[in-house]
Amino acid sequence: MRVLCVGGGPAGLYVALLLKMADARHEITVVERNLPYDTFGWGVVFSDQTLGNLAAADPGTHADILAAFCHWDAVDVHFKGRTITSGGHGFCGIGRKRLLNILQARCEALGVRLVFETEVDDPAAYGAQDLIVASDGINSALRTRRAAVFGPQIEARRCRYIWLGTQRIFDAFTFAFEPTPWGWFQAHAYRFDGETSTFIVETPEEVWRAAGLDRMPADEGIAFCERLFARYLGGHRLLTNARHLRGSAWINFQRVTNRTWLDLSGPAPIVLVGDAAHTAHFSIGSGTKLALEDAIALAGAVSAGGDLKAALAAYEAERSLEVLKIQNAARNSTEWFEHVDRYAGFDAEQFAYSLLTRSQRISHENLRRRDPGFVAGVETWFAAKNALPATPVPPMFAPFTLRGVTLPNRVVVSPMAQYSCADGTVDDFTLVHLGSRAHGGAGLVFTEMTAVAADARITPGCAGMYAPQHRDAWRRVVDYVHARTPAKIALQLGHAGPKGSTQRGWDDADAPLPEGNWPLLAPSALRYGPCNALPRAMTADDMERVKAEFVRAARWGAECGFDWLELHGAHGYLLSAFICPLTNRRDDAYGGSIANRCRYPLEILHAVRAAWPAERPLSVRISAHDWAPGGNTPDDAVVVARLLKEAGADLIDVSSGQTTRDAAPVYGRMYQTPFADRIRNEVGIATMAVGAIFEPDHVNAIVMAGRADLCALGRAHLADPYWTLHAAAELGYRDLPWPRQYLAGKAQLERHRARAAAADERPEAGG
Length: 767
What we know:
CATH superfamily of the largest domain: FAD/NAD(P)-binding domain
Distance between the termini: 47 Å
Strand content: 15-25%
Radius of gyration: 29 Å
Oligomer: single chain
């Protein structure tokens, strides 16, 4: 096989040597535009896991790389004059030039042809090829020429950074944060050989400009950084390389994605690897890792034999999923560093924890395995901040107080439609359903969305609070929860709007009823879907009537003794339909700008707040992202949250989507938590995170990192009403109260957990 690798960075070189190792008959050429050792950057970082992947792929190259590595396992976070250290992270650093030197020497020893200082304008100049590997980096010329096929998307991120070096040797991966009159600057520093460290300085574009760095010559900008970070440099200078200074010394990170990594239209297939295919922000140290793992996967697929095009498709299928995970984590990490000011009010303990878990790939228990002392320290700090004895307590079991209500812990049973009512009246099913979950240990249990009128229901089976018998039935549920459990109970009120008069969730969800449909109201006469009924645009009289219905329902909820009230302003129901620009096309004072679109929901919030007892909390659930072109974005959600806070909301319950059938969410673990994080820490209001939160680890990490104050779990509580009690047993936390009737089960569960933990720690028998 004849293979041309266009680009002699780590990806191209590693593909070449692995293919040559697999079959010495391959004729492989690597063409690089630069000199052999002319490269951007100073050092690169690998995790221990990445090193393991390299060892499996090519022990010889791995041995050479390992001999040149500097290894450390600690992270130092310098913030507000304090240093917080966490260990057990397992990093390895190597100079980028040294890495390329190793890969080049290995290629030459195997018989790969290396060509330098040459641009590949036309791959055909190198003769007929069986495969062309586009490994020419973030500015890939091959990808650009075939953009119609690859469909590249290049996004310039918010921060400017400069990649420098220093002879100051750092013993830990060092993050240093410094405030200035213009905003925050941060440094990422780590050693990569016996005498040199990488030192990257980063700051948001607007801070960079306000500080005048856009107008400074490169040497003055570097001197600025030396003065700003002098306390960490210990008298050492910051160094640069000449090639870096030929362009702008400060650059924006470019996030690269492609519609496809394959071009099969020409005489030889072209495949993208490394930065030509994707990039991940340097803050998670994954650029070179991804490039080398691309090479391993590509060489493995091609060397397996069979049809080449099928092998390339298999490579893309395997790698694209892993890259998507890494890029999602990198996006979270990037946004954290782009918005350090959000977290500037944190104490150093929480700031460091938030930094370490910023990508959502490192969980609370994973961090405990790395450094038990660090986690015990932050748990002790968090417990003391929340009026508990200063001893380690999992954050999810810390109390939370809002207005005059204190929840015993941070776990919430999310509102979940059960479609099991008759004419809006809850019965024994709801008593058992909510009662069992209150027994299950959660601090707060929510009702399903409860309609404020008969025509406000989603389905005929939905709960209501619009008739006296509803009030009486709900009082029975509330009284049971208060008398028999330590949990608090919340009433969620809503109006289905354009999504009403549909079938139960287990039938044809969101589809109209076969018969007996009722008229619908909406901000505009727009169907939720092509088969849904056409709603009537609300008049002023309609608005007054519905507002009065919300007020009546809130008053009755207070009479029932509910501890907490929530307005449902998400998921395309009536209040959400006003907020969303895709469903609100009004041309009066209630349409147009975001302030106008929020006007009616705010009027209802004002009226309900006045009717609801002052000592009890009132929250609002919103869709923080419509996930559809032209819809609300997370930027808009911040504006909405500010308006709600000003109108009297105590907490924002942060969900997303379901406002339009065109929504295309990007799902994943805790995928909506970044929206809750942003609202909490930019708007300054308590938030509840919801969405793919299903493990104790998720709750502990979210709460400890200050991303949200509460975590709502829905499906997890459908599967296990006693989720919180089981989580406490899993974590070895014995202070969560169980129902007295179930204490024998608690003891048995704890014994089983202890035996399992001991078995995990017992060494296997040898022989």
